[in-house]
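Hey, I'm writing a tutorial for new members on how sequence and structure tokens pair up, and I'd like a real worked example in the thread rather than a made-up one. If someone can provide the structure for the chain below, I'll link this post from the tutorial.
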Amino acid sequence: MSLLEAPGASRTAGPAAGPVSGGQARTRLRGVLAGLAAALLLAGLFGRLMAYGLRRDETLYVPPAALLPELQLYRDMFYNHVPDSAWLFWGFHQLSGGFGLLGAARLAVFCAWLLLLAGAAWAGWRLGRSRALALLLPLMLITCTPLLTQAGMSATNNLLPLPFALWGLGLFVQETLKPEPGRAGLLLSGLCLSLAAGMKASAVVFIPPAAVGAFFLPAALPLRRRLRQVVLPLYGGGILGALPLFWYLLRDPASFLAHVAGFHTGPHKAYWLDHAAAEPGLALGLGARLQLAQETWLSGSALVLALLLACCLWAAPRGSTRRTPPQGGGQILVLGAALVLAAAMSLLPAPGFVQYYIPPLAVLVLLAALLWRRLEAPVQAGLLPLLGGAALVCLALGAPRLGGGLAALARPGEFAGAKAVRGGAALRQALARAGAPEGPIATFMPVYPLEAGLPVYAEFATGQFAYRISPYLKEELRRHYRMAGPEDLEALFAADPPAALLLGYAPELEKPLLAYALARGCRRIPAGERPEEGQKEGPGDLANRYGTGQLFLCPPHKQP
């Protein structure tokens, strides 16, 4: 069915259909133009995502894709999030090795984008029963400023829960609107909601509204049948999707909880309280977090989406000729509860970062579709010009960033993944030329050596995040972490001497590592240049927004 046809519309086909009328031709032309526009937007999104510079958080999320299943999450490395995103990146790394470690993880995020945009289009089409809304809702997401910056452009778990939450709640709404809910749709709904929580722990807030609502919706269905047709499949899908979480939790509950919960409620907050001056605009207090939330929820295309919701609420009682309440009141309560819980959870962590405030966007899309569905046809027709204006505003908001993404497609060699691969190759070649001894690379930027297949210390496998909280750790947490602080370096390097140290990305944190290198007679060697292009030593491909790689070669290890 064409996106420009109304659901359930009949079509004529075959030779007997006769010549195409002017109206049909215009409809087809609009469909072609919409398809071309969608292709350009997706191409711009892909280019921007792939060219977006390496971010420090990616040194936590990406390395496990190269180390699983040789090293176990939580037990053999420091990983302070739930496990599904790590295994997702590992799977993409296995299937798309040509993209490199970072590139494969970015590709996984792009696929999550596609799933999210498809869910928004589906919500407008199936829930909102509007082809205009099916075009506008994904447009609002693809031009949303927070999603076009670090929250949606880096290989982390920030965007990953959104498509699963949208599909999970959307399928629940769709099935419970039917007189006879479909078990398969509800099973998939529960599965998606659990997968969202498996991608990011805070996404668990999407589960209770559906889990409670399943006992009451659809209201016309007898309780016994509701339990059989709604509750059991929804809960069954939820249990299936939560199996990875259950496995880690039952296998080593103390370690799992120490990483996922203990880190964020203790040393993480203590570190930022002590280093607030190093992060201008850090949202520590509730007032600052509320301000950051407002900037995320009520700006750009997110504000356009909020205004659309307000217009639907305002227009609903006007011009209504219904004698009975419209369908979907209970489902709106479920989505409203999900929105409130998601907003509250976003405000809970301290300090707050922009990426914490994007989960409510998935619920807003579904609410817009369902509220539009409840409007009568004349009211919808009167609001269509508003939708057209909203689309133009969204295009204007997203054009600079997505246009830059289109331009980036002409330079695939400048993609972040390609740079990381070249940086790893430059690192490997520099060590080979210098005759480096065997041993791991000590660095807080493990993406580069892992791209080259070089060993790294398990204690630094996910970057600096465990190292920097060492002064703030209590012993009951420290014993669950595979980590090393400044005070542990001598013993760590004595037991397993490094072949080299790759520094230059966090000068303050790296001071003990630099002191070790100088005290042991490590010499700095050129790295990052591309001799085949005749370049002199310089930043090359080991440079990123945090600094320029400095490679220190360690002397040969003395045999005992």
